[in-house]
Amino acid sequence: MVAVGQSNAANYAATRASGGAGVYALQRGQLFHASDPLPGADGERGSIWTRLGAQLAASQQFDAIVLAVAARGSSFARDWAPGGRTFPLLEATLTDLQRTGLAPDFILWHQGESEGLNATASGADYLAAVQAVQSHCQQMFPNSIFVVAQATLYYDAPRNEQIRLAQRTAGALPRAAVGPDLDQLDGDNRSDGVHFSARGATAAAELWFATLRPLIERRREAQVLPSHP
């Protein structure tokens, strides 16, 4: 599983967590037991991904969960598209997975607060950037599902509905899915108005898990071969 985005995907949650048994983080071709702060992100605190990994492991549907993170605080969608300033990190993460022989089932996109705080940010530009990211990811991993969260909440700034619409539209593209609406996690779920509190990180992981569960079932059903007489 690959996680891409900005600070709320990048170890900025208030408290650290561990994925527990069977949950691993990938770094430079090596697997480590997943504990915060996760490699591939620039924050030094907690992550929603370790918490999500623990929930996935508890579902007992996988032999192991591998987390590969490419996330930077304050990044924009355009930064992750080919030619953008953080694209080399995404490219290196995907290449690391390829070399290790690990094909991600899901690529989780959690980015949008940087654009969301700007009421005039273009939803069309945002969508074009996300499409470019998705296209590149799926050139390398054509069977992965690109899951797009709705995430724009930034302090008390009015929500940019253009960006939220662009996120939902991106999630409706082929080989994609609409992810959780994380803007609903406000109040005590945020430690500073933007980043998740311990409670918020757990709630965000639960919303991600609820989104992934039917996608996992669908993938599992699609992989079942028909019986032969």
Could you characterize what this model shows?
- With 229 residues, the protein is α/β, with parallel strands linked by helices.
- It is 38% helix and 16% strand.
- It contains seven helices and seven strands.
- It has a seven-stranded mixed beta sheet, sandwiched between helices.
- A hairpin with a 2-residue loop joins β2 and β3.
- α1 (48-58) crosses α7 (198-223) and α5 (123-140) runs parallel beside α6.
- The chain is globular and about 45 Å long.
- Residues 225-229 have low confidence and may be disordered.
Any chance you could write out the topology, listing elements then pairs?
Elements: E1 2-5, E2 23-27, E3 30-33, H1 48-58, E4 65-71, H2 77-80, H3 87-100, E5 106-110, H4 113-116, H5 123-140, E6 145-150, H6 161-171, E7 176-181, H7 198-223
Parallel strand pairs: 1-4, 1-5, 2-4, 5-6, 6-7
Antiparallel strand pairs: 2-3
Helix pairs in contact: 1-7, 5-6
What is the number of beta strands? 7
Specify the structural class.
Answer: alpha/beta
Q: Major beta sheet, specifics?
A: 7 strands, mixed
- 3D shape: globular
Q: SSE order in H/E notation?
A: EEEHEHHEHHEHEH
- What is the assembly state of the chains in this entry? single chain
**Largest sheet strand order:** 3-2-4-1-5-6-7
Beta-strand residue percentage: 15-25%
In angstroms, what is the radius of gyration? 17 Å
Mean pLDDT: 95
Number of helices: 7
Helical percent range? Answer: 25-40%
What is the first-to-last residue Cα distance? Answer: 36 Å
List the uncertain runs: 225-229
